[in-house]
């Protein structure tokens, strides 16, 4: 058995997953570490601040040291939207690679979507549908049919950006809510093709925000079905969840079961984005996958380096 690690520098957190690869190719996650540094908040005029640089460097170096002490064979390191849009991203990546002796790269939004697609269980993508990952500062969407990618989209719009832009803190009046929906659908989702028979399609959700929405529905509405190691919910569940928390202040959301404390300030923005897309494609069925981009990165690595294992 050999170990491979994934380091993922995202908008909301810096993540480390260490996997054990068995001789039969089975992947088992043995260690998971999270640092909830909000990279999006470290940007000033689209430059990562010196303080932000120092935090990212320290966290990644700690992760690399942990990997070295854990006999990890290979480290795969990527950065996504918050770093992607930083004007000094090349400086950050150079510093990380020089200090840690790894090869971190910044991946595009389209690469994110395709890696998430590769990472989910194959049995979830053997029909027709869409895959969606809502991040803090970007949203990736992919359409598929019979395990094949049809179209791929990446939008510079995520739960934190929507929350900050519209100052979604506590109650949102209907006029503001309709304005947000109109902008999201018209500005971002209008060009997404929907050539599928609407009765057949479903949405696969990946990533922390959509997973957290599923947990909240499971704990508070009792309408979530767990099947094939994934949550199965409906569009009405998403609408009911928003109605459930709409009038609650941010500080009061902490009492809700299933909601991660670090997402209390952005969960409303995430639910709005998800609801807008479901309305756009007229989709009723959502499957929330536990696997996503990091499993996709690992699968891609193993396909290229299978002889090493």
List keywords for this structure.
about 300 residues, alpha/beta, Nucleotidyltransferase, domain 5, 2 domains, seven-stranded mixed β-sheet, 10 helices, about 40% helix, about 25% strand, globular
What does this structure look like?
A seven-stranded mixed sheet has the order 10-9-8-11-14-13-12, sandwiched between helices. Strands 3-2-1-6-7 form a five-stranded mixed sheet, with helices on both faces. A two-stranded antiparallel ribbon has the order 4-5. The protein is of the alpha/beta class and 309 residues long. The protein has two domains: 106 residues, Nucleotidyltransferase, domain 5 (2-Layer Sandwich); 180 residues, 2-Layer Sandwich (Nucleotidyltransferase, domain 5), CATH 3.30.420. The chain has ten helices and 14 strands. It starts with a strand and ends with a helix. Helix 5 crosses helix 9, helix 7 crosses helix 9 and helix 8 runs antiparallel to helix 9. The longest helix has 20 residues.
